[in-house]
Fold this protein.
Amino acid sequence: MTNILDFDYYFYDYSNRTQALENIIANIPTWLSFVRIVLVILLRAGYVLIHIGSVPVNNINLILLQNIIDICWITMVYSLLGIIIAYTGDVHGVIGAGHWIGDHDVDKDELITGWSAVVITAAICTSGIVGRTHTVGYIIIGFLLAGIVQPFLIHWIWTPHGWMRRNVLHKEHVHFHDYTGSVVIHVLGGLTGLIGCLTLGRRILRLDAIDEASIAVGASGNVFAGYLLVFIGLQSLSLTNIQLEHFEMKIKRKHNVFVNNILAASACSLFVVIFHFAHPREEFNHWTVMRCVQAMIAGIVVISAGADAYPPLAAIILGAIGSIIFYIISRYVFRSALEDYCNIVATHLVCGILGTILVPFFYVQEDDDVKLVLLNFGWQMICLIVVIGLVSIIMYLAFIILQYAGLLRNRSEYLNHLRANVAEGRNQRKNLLDRLFRMDRDAVYLQPGMSFGEPLGLRRTQEREE
């Protein structure tokens, strides 16, 4: 009998397969689903450690509570609503056929695949707003992500009949390649987190106003361990996604995915370390070391669109390219008033966009000419713009409505935001860019977990007057 690994491509056609191959199809997904669940749980545990060690809040229990609510709520919403949109058949490449989770036609392993995507995306989004939002607002944003927005993206991009996955452009067949969720997960989660940060506004004057002495004891170790768990958990996205109908499975190439992840992560992190050494004015402290660890995640994100197709050398090159963009963006965000404590903008949003743009140039088949490469690039850009526009409109409206309804900020966040406004001494509302990215001459240090007997801004104003 011919070994299944000898095939470059394999289509699930039961009429032409032996009993042995049918047994492989029947048994592999269950084990993969179990491994996927374990890896995703490790990833969420990693993000909890990152949140506790990076986000300054008055009550750590709030972070723990929001994380457990997030996981349970996302799971329920996706299982009862999201999977109806994401999988269970197809209607014109736009939406699933609407089968209920209890129907026999629903593939439970597909449910676990989509579940892992929405839980990871929610973790990325949570990193931008954790400890700052009202619980009701948190639940509403989770409902939109797991129940509506992401299921549509999963169906459009990850299912065989999705309109983004395969289409025709200038009479040529083009496809949107996103193997491990560059757009479906990283861009979506990073963009939603960024919109949340922009809507919430500032609490302190700059992220770098948190000095090294203000970092809680053990925080650096917790964050470091958290990112290692996230690195392990992201491997769940590289597991084989077996669909029983019309799914093309590239057996040999899948063995390169984990190798590519390791190479890209190592290259990106190593180059970021070199950049820090080459910059003599910047000492290695909590923030610079964490940036070097975050670069490992950024390397995986950069190759996530085509991790199944890249040769090892391409993974290293993409990791190096991603390190440059990641280093520049993360340093700029660090010195801005955008409170991206977990660096999701540079790690997930920017690197996800970069990887989506570059995949047509690094994933070229032997029979592809220049015209087809450019058409695939154009299709990648069209789909990317559509996704960014759609997500931006929906999530921005959601955050604005929550803000005007009084359901966006929790009480602690409201007080911190008020202190920052008073400390800035603003009598009139400034434009968005000035509020976010204007550099402040004087740093105000906020220690994670500290509380104030009086508003910080009033005390600073009195010191200036004296």
Observations:
- Strands lie at 166-169, 172-175.
- Residues 176 and 364 are 13 Å apart (CA to CA).
